[in-house]
Amino acid sequence: MFLTLLAALSCLLPQGRSQETNAPAHPVVATHYFYWYRWPTEHFNQRGAPGREGHHHHFTKPKQVSYLSRDWHEGEFRAMSAAGIDVALPVYWGAPGAYERPNLRFARAGLKPMIEALDAIAASGDEPIALGMFYDTSTLLRSVRGKSHGPDRPNRPDLTRAAGEQLFCRTVVEYFEQIPPRHWARFRNRPLVVLYASGFAGKWDRGLGAALRHAFAKRFPGENPWLVADVSWGRIGQDMTTAWGAALAGPKLFPSLAQIGPGYDDSAVPGRHTPIRDRQDDLFYRWSWRQAVRHRPELVLIETWNEMHEGTEICETIETGRRYLELTREWVQRLRSGDAGPALVEPEPPRLRPDLGWGAEARGATTVHAVYSQAKPERSGLREILVGDGPCTVAGGALHSRGASDRPVTYVYFQISDHWKFDVRSDCVIEVTRRDTGAQVSIDYDSNDPRATLDGAYKRVRATSRKHDGARVKDTFVVPSARFANRQNGGADFRLVVQGKDCDVVSVRVR
User: Fold this and answer.
1) Which CATH architecture has domain 360-510?
2) Predicted structure pTM score
3) Residue 472: strand pairing partners
4) Residues 449/412, Cβ–Cβ less than 8 Å
5) What is the rounded distance in angstroms from the CA atom of residue 163 to the CA atom of residue 174?
6) Sequence spans of domains, the chain
7) Which candidate in 84, 188, 436, 464 could, as Cys together with 332 as Cys, close a disulfide (CB 3.0–4.6 Å)?
8) Across-strand partners of 426?
9) Strand, helix or coil at 182?
10) 414, 493 Cβ separation under 8 angstroms
11) What is the pLDDT of residues 122-179, one digit of tens each?
12) 3-class DSSP assignment, residue 432
């Protein structure tokens, strides 16, 4: 899974506390469980994979790691319980009708040995953890499921149409069909479902949550899933809202919920230039936990148990031993007693990494630009970035972003070549030419203003001038003290904030 960076919380409002009164007796702690590993070929066969040279942390016994192994799952589940964790959230690559594909086979094949492991724990007289669902929505993409796609069959499905809605709902229902109800994780007595980012869907609306509940109740009469949705979904009738990226950006705090992580480092994965969140000898994890305890949540999500490729794991490793298990147990106890402990020194910010693998032509230039109105788009030192909350496509002489009725805004992200500007303090002008669709557009840019969102990564400016030329609009934005340090989602330097309508970008120029 590629991490959706620095979720844009400033423009999407979190959901309020549920009106139900049957709150859990104590806060529930869950963690994302990546079970796609199988020694030596599955998620071990690339540079940066756990067990290979070049990655910072490694499984202690990699040859025993396999999603097909009951013993491996049992060991992981027992370690979670010992650390005070209540719920494992298997990262489910649900793809109805495509589970025979090599990249998807683990999704179903790994669940049966998980159940066997939980039954073995129960048979020994110990209390097993419960299984919720973390729906990795990247499998909504037709390409991931091995389906052809094109103009008539978009890669991102429309969840407002019957086929897309059925795919979404069926994936959740099929997962719970494979998990005996005795092992279901329940929050407020309802099966727990957590959604990853929305960017893999082409369209959705407020009725998606209701559609899921209807499909679930039809298959499991009397059951009503407790839906926790990533903030990028907007309002879809969820019970709680969360946001991915806490392991890098810091704690994500919403009503009744906190999501935290221990740090982030994907430097061993080819092609990545994501900032690194140093663990600072576990200071970042302890500081994140303290923020969570002070927030007094009912549900805490730990990101992650074992996503080794991105360095977010808290499981036992060769390098850290059981240190993070012990820390987790300590802080779960603090969570349940309400003791946040003394103040801690605030951790250092993420360490930036320039991406010099593209855009060398911009070195020494006075401007950079991207022009989409030509038969072949021209990009010189500037390119669009596709991330979870900023889906867009290049077609018909424009970079197209589609508005949605359930979200107040949509985004279009851009990255400037680090050969031109990187981690600077510079005044710039951004000119955006677009078709006049009636949309209102402003810009969030990576600035040096510490008062702006996420230490300046998202500073909002409006157009200083606007000119109409027939069916086109040219907006000019003055951006003072720009930093351009790749700190926005996907390593972007600025994004268009589009309100209300579709947006067709013809060209963007930065000078």
Assistant:
1) Sandwich (2.60)
2) 0.81
3) 435, 469
4) no
5) 16
6) 29-337, 360-510
7) 84
8) 482
9) helix
10) yes
11) 999 999 999 999 999 999 999 899 988 777 788 889 999 999 999 999 999 999 999 9
12) strand
